[in-house]
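Batch manifest line 603
LIGAND: flavin-adenine dinucleotide
JOB: complex structure
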Amino acid sequence: MSYDPASVRAKYLAERDKRLVPGRADIRDLGHDERFKRYREDPFRPRAERAPVTDEVDALIVGGGIAGVLAGANLRQAGVERIRIVDLAGGIGGTWYWNQYPGVMCDVESYMYIPMLEEFGYIPTRRYASGEEIRRHLERIGERYDLVSGALWHTGVVRGEWDDEATRWRIHTDRGDEIVCRWYVLAVGILNLLKLPVIPGMEDFAGKSFHSSRWDYRYTGGGPDAPLTGLAGKSVALIGTGATGIQCVPPLAAAAEHLYVFQRTPSAVGVRGNRPTDPGFGAALEAGWQKARMDNFQAIMLGRSVDTDLVDDGWTRHYGPVHHPPRHEGMSVADYIRAGEELDFSIMEEHRRRVEEVVTDPAKAAILKPYYRYLCKRPCFHDEYLEAFNKPNVTLIDCPAGVERVTPRGPVAGGREYPVDCIIYGTGFEPELTPLYRRAGHEIVGRGGVTLAEKWAPGAASLFGMMIRGFPNLFVMPAPGQQAVVTVNYTQLAVLGGEFIGHTVGLLLKNQVAAFDVSAEAEEAWTQKIVDSFVDGSAVMAACTPSRINLEGHPELLNPRNGNYGRGLGDWFAYRQRLEDWLADGRLEGLELKVLEPRPGGS
Ligand SMILES: Cc1cc2nc3c(=O)[nH]c(=O)nc-3n(C[C@H](O)[C@H](O)[C@H](O)COP(=O)(O)OP(=O)(O)OC[C@H]3O[C@@H](n4cnc5c(N)ncnc54)[C@H](O)[C@@H]3O)c2cc1C
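JOB STATUS: finished
ARTIFACT:
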């Protein structure tokens, strides 16, 4: 395809329109529909019976993923003694506990993604580490900072309620626990709510079915890195070809007698270049290397010039430049926009050529080529995904409008039924822009009985995206859509959030503060900054094929109050500086403080 802007735009719009079908974004209510509750159950570790816990801790953290573990480690460093993590999962890991599907690995470089590498003197074994390696490292952090012994696993928080008189939170769980705490930290995740589409007849399927984030190895055999021996002689349907789908296609193709891959929209799948870590890598690193590497990467994501691209992968070569195309002196806005579009086109052409070069069957190749702008979806990278379609036991089913229905025998697409033994839903997660009060999965009740859902009904309001007026002593780990910033490498933001919470609690303890609340002025000022820097990108995003990035075809629904600090995805460097200055100043500006006589034990 040559670059003719009008015909490229027309082609992209036609591809979008094929996918804009009513009801496409409808998702199952897994919380209340009894028929689908099993999709959320933990297949990895048995749930041990235990008596309800009624006690008091200093800090209660909801979520034991990267964010929860980093918050815990920093609170420990700040001198907080009794820390309790509560998680629905059966152990530490969050995303990396739940997502144990075959082939799972991080999609940004592990030397940046796995936190606290320097502190632990640990170097990941591969450039893009497996989920298991990530989880093991998070477990090590949990052990070192003593976050495991007091944790409550397989436990869902159902309600957190502020008690003004006691200046404490009362936390209730689905196991009858009632825990009182002083500091309440929400580290509930950004992609923590698994998503099942509403496909008629799903509940009538007679074979095995599960979601990719609850992989059932008792059925498939094998493990995240071991062959799926239980699938010999079985036919399998995989629904979904996003970030998860592309990682599990190669192991499924290697094991199943037949694999049917149902694709609504092809992902742009770039070269991964995964490899074992160079034995000399660790020895060449200097103190402060991990932070410097994260900063170098993030600078490129924000279009800043750097001397060396330390990571040098598809993110830095494609994603960064597409979001911040080079702007030459004297360039008009129109020329700049056009140059950006052309750059985007050339990158997508590269991806389409890669499909042609790798996939031998032209019919399959045609279906696998992505036709939309690179900035429309979080890009994928893989070295074996496209090759898998050259295997004779892999059938690709093009269904832009989605799977039509499921019969007792299997999925139906294009009017044809595909009988299978097993259906795997690789259908992803509710978007990270899902409001915090929904992602948190429980009611958060602040001063005067006001819930967070009520307070945030018109949109977010906060100080720094981490503290909220009316919800004293509550910290929220920063996340997209929540008045902080977006980082492609989420860990960079979680590290900052954890450090901020730890240092802030350190200051509060030093000043013998029993409770803090955000002042009305500080919250208004921060929220106004977020609204003022909001850039309405809905015209560009509306032309995308629907996905979670463009709110399933409705980018106009983005609320400016749920935006970021700085234009677009936010200015990471300015945001970090703002937090560092606030901490260095030490006056806890913008907080209303209730100072009490210190109690014994620091609680
Ligand atoms: C498969 C997959 C791969 C990813 N790869 C990358 C990557 O390479 N790079 C990147 O930057 N990002 C990646 N992400 C995004 C990823 O979610 C974040 O990087 C990070 O792991 C999020 O950590 P977290 O601690 O904030 O949330 P999570 O890891 O989601 O942990 C939150 C935890 O809170 C628990 N929880 C929530 N509500 C409650 C409640 N009411 N009661 C009890 N427990 C509760 C959940 O069970 C969960 O375990 C990926 C996401 C997925 C799904």
